[in-house]
Design brief:
Length: about 270
Amino acid sequence: SCSQCYILLCLYYFMRFCSHLLFCVLFVILYNILCLIFFYFFFLMIRRPPRSTLSSSSAASDVYKRQVSTQSTGNCPEEDGVGVMEVLVHVYDLVEYNQYLNLMGTGVYHSGVEVLAGVEHTFGHSDTGSGVFQHPAREAPGASYRETIRMGNTKLTISQIREVLDDLSVAFHGSSYHLLLRNCNHFSQAFVERLVNRPIPAFVNRMAYLGGCASCLVPVSWQHALMKAPVSNAGPTSSGPPARSQNRQSHSGQLRSTNHSFGGAGRRLGD
């Protein structure tokens, strides 16, 4: 009948209206989400600290060597006196795709902290003892040097820096390493905060933070792989905590120490 046809026609147009309305609502929601994502990454890019003048080029390496020499001869605090030392965070690429991820304010990075000239401290996996170890600055094994970020100056004395490293060596046990929840960048964050009371740039560890938010979804079979560090100590371990020494300078004016945590190559702390 005509009344039934009229009702069906009304239902047809009503359904078309609802479908168009739903499409418009979904389009607006999707558009807003894309805008938020765009402005989020844009904000990350403008907040991204400028790349340090220290790079892997040969010219910049000469500048770095001159800075190390200056810090070694005239800018180090006395053993128990007050001085000013620059804190440097060295950042390394662990994957080649970082050149693209870096544009979005993230990436897969390794980092270490240099506060004494030529010596860099970082954190990695170890079955026994502390996971904190040292190696020559900007020469992390198994990683490609990317840049150096200047974090400011610390006024701690060398003995105070030793105490900080002793505390962190206990806190960052080698068996506690986790690629997402407790990695080298977490150590750098803790070390720098103790030295200059400020955090390292967020982009250095943002990928691990995002992965850590979903760590509960990682299969149990993958958990063992997350306990292995991409950069670890390959050198011999030390037999005990560092011993303090009063031998501070050689005839050339460079700082020396018999402390195990500041001398040698590839030694662990706090074993």
